[in-house]
Design a protein that fits this description.
- This protein is of the alpha+beta class.
- It has three domains: about 20-35 and about 180-245; about 35-175, no CATH class; about 255-295 and about 305-365, no CATH class.
- The chain has six helices and 23 strands.
- It has helices at about 1-15, 60-70, 195-210, 235-240, 330-340, 345-355; strands at about 25, 30, 35-45, 85-95, 105-110, 120-130, 135-140, 145-150, 155-175, 185-190, 215-220, 220-225, 245, 255-260, 265, 270, 275-290, 290-295, 305, 310-325, 330, 360, 365.
- Strand 11 and strand 12 (about 220-225) form a beta hairpin.
- It is flat, with a radius of gyration of 33 Å.
- The chain starts with a helix and ends with a strand.
């Protein structure tokens, strides 16, 4: 199956044009100021079916439950209660850009104690804080966990992760980010994959769109866009006009191999210098077959174990010596090795050797 997948990827690579397919600008860059903010909170899940925290092992659960009950007017001072249907959790979420008060966002709930499952639980009102310590949202709702667990007296089975779940639209935004996007005079476009050629193409495409010089590449990962030079007063209108401009991004020559699964992924610009390749498999086999030697009849003596060892060396046929001419693409080399029946793992070893010889003109990444 891996070999068929590799053949398909090679055929797809050979069919690629000289330039990559055009990609929308919004899929290549991040706009300065248009970003999310991480939120985190510490809360309590109730309503579990006996799968909550053991309060003896998680005293912080008892503490937060006592504080919650006291805020609701229930005095539990000095009481000794140990319910098994509550669990302490961390609640995380991302406040999207331009989120307004009253909007709803998704949250993720994860157990931090020894709770066995959050299935069927309900998160009690939990404030969510940002890095500045301010509360920006409040989460509450029924948890949807993506797993299941069951156990008996002598066996236990767990599928998925029942100690983590989500609450779709489970938090309501209470505070907005203090950021006035309309006051920006210059918007920086940050490339997700920095590259000088791609940044230059973005600069050229934006200037061509407005018919004047409004964008300037500052480095391989940043293009500065002047809002005032565009003749438009609103940064939102400017970005709405440029984000769908199509760019042909440039990519570095790179080879990525995964030794665990035998997967090989390569770019179209990978080239190999002139090199000779020889590959074969050597098998050493040692077999122990000890024999018991007994004394002759009516003779004095003891039975002795005599070692008997058989050693052999077997060399399986490989691909022999093959010379690769200069300028050959790596996809052609791998296609040839694949046609000879070389396994993906042996192919990875050959590529590592070619890279060690300095003949592989690409970034070689091993995972």
């Amino acid at each position: 199956m891996i070999r068929h997948l590799l053949s398909f990827l090679l055929a797809l690579t050979l069919a690629l044009p000289a330039l990559a397919e055009p990609v929308r600008l919004k899929d290549l860059v991040e706009f300065d100021g248009v970003r999310g903010n991480d939120l985190v909170g510490y809360g309590l899940v109730v309503g579990l079916n006996g799968t909550g925290d053991g309060l003896r092992n998680a005293p912080f659960t008892e503490e937060i439950m006592s504080n919650l009950l006291e805020r609701l007017g229930v005095n539990v001072t000095g009481e000794n209660f140990r319910p098994k249907n509550v669990a302490a959790v961390f609640v995380t979420a991302t406040l999207p850009p331009f989120a307004r008060a009253g909007g709803q966002i998704d949250v993720t709930v994860s157990a931090i104690g020894d709770a066995k499952s959050l299935l069927g639980g309900t998160l009690v009102m939990t404030p969510l804080n940002a890095a500045d310590g301010q509360i920006y949202a409040v989460a509450q709702g029924e948890i949807i966990a993506g797993g299941a667990s069951a156990e008996g007296q002598a066996a236990k089975v767990v599928q998925g992760v029942p100690t983590s779940g989500t609450i779709p639209s489970g938090a309501r935004v209470e505070r907005e980010i203090a950021f006035d996007f309309t006051k920006l005079g210059t918007v920086r476009l940050a490339l997700r994959t920095p590259d000088f050629t791609t940044a230059a193409r973005i600069e050229e495409a934006i200037n061509r769109e407005f018919g004047r010089r409004v964008a300037e590449m500052t480095d391989a990962g940043t293009v500065a866009l002047s809002i005032g030079a565009t003749g438009m007063s609103s940064p939102a209108h400017v970005l709405g006009r440029v984000e769908n401009i199509e760019i042909s991004p440039e990519q570095r020559a790179r080879v990525v191999v995964d030794q665990r699964s035998g997967t090989i992924v390569m770019g179209q610009d990978v080239r190999i210098a002139r090199v000779a390749v020889s590959q074969g498999n050597l098998t050493l086999r040692v077999e122990e077959a000890p024999e018991a030697v007994m004394p002759s009849p009516f003779a004095q003596g003891e039975t002795v174990i005599v070692p008997r060892t058989k050693a052999s060396v077997q060399e399986e046929p490989g691909i022999g010596m093959a010379e690769v001419p200069a300028g050959t693409s790596l996809s052609e080399v791998v296609a040839g090795l694949n046609a000879l029946g070389v396994s993906p793992r042996d192919m990875i070893d050959i590529l590592k050797s070619i890279n060690a010889a300095g003949a592989l003109h690409a970034e070689f990444v091993v995972q």
